[in-house]
Specification:
The chain is of the alpha/beta class. The protein has 10 helices and 8 strands.
Length: 294
């Protein structure tokens, strides 16, 4: 048997190997109440997410009659299914049937974790309904259903672009020190039509994040979009004259709430100066807020 040379043995002696007892995970506690994982809210006093996508699903749950839902906002998107929030953690008894559990769900013995796209199916099962059986999707007629598609495109297009432009851009230090930090304007290339020109060329050796965005043009379209939204709502209780809230109402509320809480005055004022939108947002906010437990 070859012995370790004395100099090397002397070096290794300064780094002794210690063995520690295993640390077992804490006892799992079954989930008793549905818990929605969301991005942090604007204020700790209000359990509504500051992220449009998360808030849209909060509004969807509340407006469909799901209440007493807990929220958890201390989980990064990287810890969610597909790296995207929100996720819904539901009790095993309330989850989908074992035959329905696919690779996009996670069960760890505590409950079932559902991605956002599985939330409607869980709501249908909880309420004992089948929303897919309604060809009008909750709208009053086919014309309103088809019109809703245009409003969704408008909200997720130019309105979302204006919201992105109001967000603070990461500093150069953040860009080079964080693997997850990206320039918010990068997303504009998939939102705006035509897409803005990127700051770096095709053959650039160093990629510069961001894009050459005509901010004045975006803001002009944003103001026109908010004006159109206000005119279409009018004095109706729900958008497009529906008798009950629809997915469009959930989406519209999410955008209006985030716009009214924007740190950029021009974004905020464009909504607040239209009384019907501001009053509608406040009314829906009250309905959505009471459905969640911080």
């Amino acid at each position: 048997m070859v012995s370790i040379p004395a100099p090397l043995a002397s070096l290794f002696s300064h780094f002794p190997l210690h063995t520690y007892p295993p640390i077992y995970p804490p006892t799992k506690v079954p989930v008793k109440v549905p818990t929605l994982w969301i991005s942090p809210p604007f204020s700790s006093q209000v359990p509504l997410s500051s992220d449009v996508e998360c808030l849209k699903w909060q509004a969807y749950l509340a407006l469909r009659g799901i209440s007493q839902t807990k929220v958890r906002s201390n989980i990064a998107p990287e810890g969610a299914i597909d790296g995207r929030l929100p996720n819904l953690l539901v009790p095993l008894a309330d989850g989908l049937e074992p035959t329905e559990i696919k690779n996009d769900k996670s069960s760890n013995g505590e409950g079932i974790l559902l991605p956002a796209r599985e939330i409607p199916a869980w709501v249908d099962k909880t309420l004992g309904l089948d929303s897919l059986a309604d060809p009008l999707e909750g709208y009053k007629d086919e014309q309103a259903r088809d019109e809703s598609r245009a409003w969704v495109t408008l909200l997720e297009g130019v309105v979302h672009a204006a919201l992105i432009l109001s967000l603070p851009r990461p500093t150069f230090f953040d860009t080079i020190t964080s693997v997850s930090t990206s320039d918010p304007t990068d997303r504009l290339q998939t939102i705006l039509s035509p897409p803005p020109i990127p700051l770096s060329g095709l053959f650039s050796l160093i990629r510069i994040p961001g894009a050459r965005v005509n901010v004045d043009n975006v803001m002009s379209q944003y103001a026109e979009a908010i004006g159109s939204l206000s005119e279409r709502l009018g004095t109706d209780e729900w958008f497009l004259g529906s008798n009950a809230p629809t997915p469009l109402d959930a989406l519209a509320f999410a955008y209006l709430y985030c716009l009214l809480n924007s740190s950029k005055n021009s974004i905020r004022i464009e909504v607040s100066k239209r009384a019907n939108l501001a009053e509608w947002e406040q009314r829906v906010r009250d309905l959505v807020g009471v459905a969640f437990i911080a």
